[in-house]
Design goal:
Two copies of one chain form a homodimer. Chain A is of the alpha/beta class. Chain A has helices at 13-22, 80-92, 102-108, 124-128, 153-166, 168-177, 196-206; strands at residues 2-6, 30-35, 39-42, 49-52, 54-55, 64-67, 95-99, 116-117, 133-134, 139-142, 145-148. At the A-B interface, helix 1, strand 2, strand 4, helix 5 and helix 6 of A face helix 1, strand 2, strand 4, helix 5 and helix 6 of B.
Chain lengths: 211, 211
């Protein structure tokens, strides 16, 4: 079983590392980080690079595709090299997945039309414009498409899919080893729970970005 | 404000990326990934490398030190280059922190003697042998030392310290943007909650590792 995690300039690190650290613990699976060009790929902060060990062309038919999001997703929405690769890989994949605004890339490739899907809470309206039924749920499975909400939700997505493929006991073992027993010091992780002024501030700012 | 995240061969990626993605969003802070040698550093799975942009020697006096853990920590316990750097950096740091078995490296450097601290649940006994008061809590603050439990707990640690330094509202904003509203599909993230047979299996296996 081969899992391909797609990197691009200014992706969000945790979007990619959450599924890698959970789903990547599938027995007998090989996780490969891929990008248009092999080598270090910088994250959105500019302070970190993850290495793409292989090019997209090197890995044409992974069993599982994982597409992270991040501010850099905007610049990829018309990158036909990436979108073509997504369509081709999806043609033979068992699971096609995304975290955060990675779902916008799946949608731009035409893969989510008419499907239930999710994205970062600030990107749900944008996702709907591509014909997806955008839900605010944290992890959404529609057929072989599994999409997750913002950034940290890739951990929940990874464990969910891990359980589906390798069984509940294996997923519980990975949850235990990664000590995923969340105790956030605040309860502000969704627009329903965060202070209204923060939600409004980010909604206003995002109008200039997601157009 | 400078945040140094220390990398070493076979660290666990999420240990480092959790604090980077939360604490690293401190206003006016620069996060720097450092290692003995600059360049790509492989994680415990071998399938991913993060780039250390600077050497330890390049970054002698960060304001915040973050030490991740992972299987590779064992090979660093007598690495005097790293331990000396930790002691020196700690001499001027405002906060010295760890995730997972990273606390064993702080302890090996002599920094946790007589202090309350935590670690991965499988490493708590080992931590106590260094004279730390090992607790099973998820995030432990003792003076300027902030230690977190296994792997994913670095997210909670990062938000906790972020709130302490930059205020609750800023930490809530980062929680909202990273959509950290955890909904694990299982409730097996700690030895108190996971099925007993899994806990026992890992305890037995770890006896050969942590000695």
């Amino acid at each position: 079983m081969q899992i391909a995690v797609v990197l691009f300039d200014r992706f969000t690190a945790l979007d990619a590392v959450g599924p890698y650290e959970t789903l990547g613990r599938l027995p007998d699976a090989e996780t490969v980080f891929v990008a248009e060009r092999a080598g270090p790929v910088r994250t959105d902060t500019g302070n970190l690079a993850l290495t793409a060990d292989r090019t997209l062309a090197d890995v044409p038919a992974p069993d599982i595709v994982v597409v992270p999001g991040g501010p850099g997703q905007n610049s990829q929405m018309e990158n036909e090299t990436l979108l073509d690769w997504l369509r081709t890989a999806d043609g033979t994949s068992t699971w096609t997945t995304s975290v955060c605004t990675g779902s916008l890339l799946l949608a731009a490739a035409g893969l989510l039309e008419g499907r239930r899907a999710t994205s970062h809470w600030l990107a749900l309206d944008f996702l709907a414009r591509f014909g997806a039924e955008a839900t605010g749920e944290r992890v959404v499975t529609d057929g072989k498409y599994v999409t997750a909400a913002g950034v940290s939700s890739g951990i929940d997505m990874g464990l969910t899919l891990l359980g589906r493929i390798a069984g509940d006991d294996h997923a519980r073992a990975v949850q235990l080893l990664t000590e995923y027993d969340p105790q956030p010091p605040y309860d502000a992780g969704s627009p329903d729970k965060a202070p209204a002024h923060l939600v409004e501030e980010f909604r206003s700012a995002s109008r200039f970005i997601l157009t």
